[in-house]
């Protein structure tokens, strides 16, 4: 499976529409990829909370539509990162979530024909009573999706940024059959050591490949961490980006992980 990880860099001066156009063009250039991955909240910005409501959109809105066209053009699966999803002003109360906010941090997986295959609303909201917990609803469901690739089918588990600090979520994705975890993020530079360490831990403890796509640049005064990485199920880091805009192209041999699970069957010894 060839994975292209698009570590986008941006700042507050780049208009959202221009960034969407630029990102879609970048996706369109990944013509030999099986799976392309974008970061979390790359269009409305991951840290500028004041812009979230203004740039909220539906799953079939302009950001996902632009990426879907690019996915169709290259015939690849594209994880479009995440958007600020809105229920819309006319949504009934029951469609706005338990807290009535009607906003979610929602990841979207797009198929090679440009169709939406899966959506995942981020379960663990970051901000300690500000940011996401103050503005957004929490997701309530874990999500996996099957990719039909030239060398066979693989099931991926979806998670987003802060989720990676919660190992029980990844255990449940493992139990749902996931062999690969895909984790877009807007993770700041000051805690980037945690980002890389936690990704490697989730790979080792679950014997799963982890694909992490972070943001670069500075926005809302926050320097972003970059250092996107792909870690195989044995814990080997197949590729790691720096702290600027970068595209990682990684060939993931899923048979390596499958053999490792058979040769070192630690998961069979689980008792709790």
UniProtKB/TrEMBL annotation:
Keywords: Hydrolase. InterPro entries: C-N_Hydrolase, C-N_Hydrolase_sf, UPF0012_CS. Coiled coil: none annotated. The keyword Kinase does not apply. One of its GO terms (molecular function) is hydrolase activity. It comes from the Bacteria. The keyword Hydrolase applies. Pfam families: CN_hydrolase. Residues 1-254 form the CN hydrolase domain. Transmembrane segments: none annotated. Belongs to the carbon-nitrogen hydrolase superfamily. NIT1/NIT2 family. This is Nitrilase-related carbon-nitrogen hydrolase.
């Amino acid at each position: 499976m060839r994975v292209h990880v698009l570590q986008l860099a941006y700042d507050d001066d780049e208009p959202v529409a221009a960034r969407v156009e630029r990102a879609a063009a970048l996706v369109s250039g990944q013509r030999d990829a099986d799976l392309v991955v974008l970061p979390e909240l790359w269009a409305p910005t991951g840290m500028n909370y004041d812009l979230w409501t203004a740039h909220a959109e539906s799953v079939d809105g302009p950001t996902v539509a632009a990426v879907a066209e690019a996915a169709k053009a290259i015939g690849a699966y594209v994880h479009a990162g995440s958007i600020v999803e809105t229920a819309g002003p006319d949504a009934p109360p029951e469609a706005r979530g338990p807290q009535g906010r009607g906003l979610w941090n929602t990841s979207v997986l797009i198929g090679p024909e440009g169709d939406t295959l899966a959506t995942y609303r981020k379960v663990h909201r970051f901000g300690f009573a500000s940011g996401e917990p103050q503005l957004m609803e929490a997701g309530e469901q874990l999500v996996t999706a099957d990719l039909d690739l030239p060398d066979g089918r693989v099931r991926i588990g979806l998670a987003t940024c802060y989720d990676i600090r919660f190992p029980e979520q990844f255990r449940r994705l493992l139990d749902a059959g996931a062999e690969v975890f895909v984790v877009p993020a807007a993770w700041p530079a000051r805690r980037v050591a945690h980002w890389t360490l936690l990704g490697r831990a989730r790979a080792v403890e679950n014997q799963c490949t982890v694909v992490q796509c972070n943001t670069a640049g500075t926005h809302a005064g926050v320097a972003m961490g970059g250092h996107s990485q792909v870690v195989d199920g044995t814990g080997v880091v197949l590729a790691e980006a720096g702290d600027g805009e970068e595209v990682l192209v990684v060939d993931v041999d899923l048979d390596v992980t499958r053999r490792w699970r058979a040769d070192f069957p630690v998961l069979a010894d689980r008792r709790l």
